[in-house]
Write a structure and sequence with these properties.
The chain has 294 residues and is α/β, with parallel strands linked by helices. The protein contains ten helices and 13 strands. Bound molecules: NADP nicotinamide-adenine-dinucleotide phosphate (NAP).
Length: 294
């Protein structure tokens, strides 16, 4: 089969098309004919950074071909001995074997049945592949950790991005009032997702406009994270939150003293969101799939 193999960590040119064997499946796995993949920032990170590759892709000595990717949509063409959930011909999608060697950039891939759910018929393979890591991350942040609920005022930083555009829609689904923050060129897109207000981070300071948010969902890298504790993006986000609210920080790792200080000074919970495989993954992905129907 054809696969896109990483020759060595570095530039995108190091990804080359190659002929590799079709993978064998374990008893709990299905063989998927891949129709679409999605590429997330983590893909680019491990592609160019050997240390990240070693930790996140975790190649074993025996790996002959490093094949990146964790997000797929495709068709089941083979099932392991204990697989009950799927049969050949089922259209599926999911974020699988993360962290580890998933090998998604290939014509065929072996995925545990528990990492996949049925793709809704009204969703394309491309859209389904895109709604795996990004949508799951927004879900874990806002629903599992943020406990978003009807009437909450929610700021979504990066509302035009992979995670953020799902965060806007998920918060709206739960009845929140959503303020989307992105660059002005993406204003119409963010509002079309259902955001109630839009703030252009390039020309406006969100914390001067909103000071009573219940939740800030922050999945962006901002240069002002290099500034002091009082001026950086995290502090600005806390300034936009009312006492008792939550800051969900997905990119910056707030330190313990900052977390304790924000709790003591303003009763704001600063929560580090790190999406890794967890017990609710399968149900969460199933719920996300259900949102596309009707
Ligand atoms: N914690 C976790 O578990 C987890 C999981 C997955 C990914 N991540 C991380 O989350 C980040 C976002 O991923 P993604 O897939 O959503 O990336 P993405 O598609 O590149 O989106 C990033 C968005 O951030 C916006 N942005 C940039 N600077 C901003 C600012 N100062 N204020 C508000 N918005 C700003 C951009 O908006 P414009 O284009 O409109 O300027 C862009 O749409 C990445 O760093 C990724 O590594 C974390």
């Amino acid at each position: 089969m054809k696969a896109i193999v990483l020759k060595e960590t570095g530039a995108p040119e190091n990804l080359v098309l190659a002929d590799v064997p079709v993978p064998a499946i374990k008893a709990n796995e299905v063989l998927v004919q891949v129709k679409a993949i999605s590429i997330n920032p983590v893909d680019a990170f491990v592609r160019r950074n050997q240390q990240a590759l070693d930790i996140i892709y975790a190649p074993r000595d025996t790996v002959e071909h490093v094949i990146l990717g964790w997000d797929i949509a495709g068709v089941v063409v083979g099932t392991g001995a204990t697989v009950k959930k799927f049969k050949a011909g089922d259209e599926v999608f999911g974020n699988y074997k993360f962290i580890g060697q998933a090998n998604a950039y290939a014509e065929f891939t072996a995925a545990p049945e528990t990492d996949l759910v049925l793709k809704p018929a009204n969703v394309s393979f491309e859209a389904a592949a895109g709604a795996t890591m990004a949508a799951m991350t927004a879900w874990v942040s806002l629903v599992n950790m943020g406990k978003v609920k009807k009437g909450d005022r929610v700021i979504v930083h990066g509302a035009s991005g992979g995670i953020g555009h799902y965060a806007v829609q998920i918060a709206k689904h739960f009845g929140a009032y959503v303020i989307g923050v992105a660059s002005g060129a993406n204003r119409d897109f963010v509002l079309s997702l259902g955001a109630d207000e839009f703030i252009d981070y390039k020309t406006q300071r969100f914390e001067e406009i909103i000071t009573d948010a219940d939740i800030v969902h922050d999945a962006v890298w901002s240069d002002d994270n290099m500034l002091s504790d009082d001026e950086n993006h995290l502090s600005r986000s806390v300034a936009a939150i009312k006492p008792g609210g939550k800051l969900l920080s997905l990119v910056i790792h707030p330190n313990k003293s900052f977390i304790e200080r924000m709790k003591a000074e303003k009763n704001v919970d600063v929560i580090r969101v790190n999406v890794t495989p967890n017990a609710t993954y399968e149900n969460d992905l199933q719920y996300i799939a259900g949102l596309s129907i009707g």
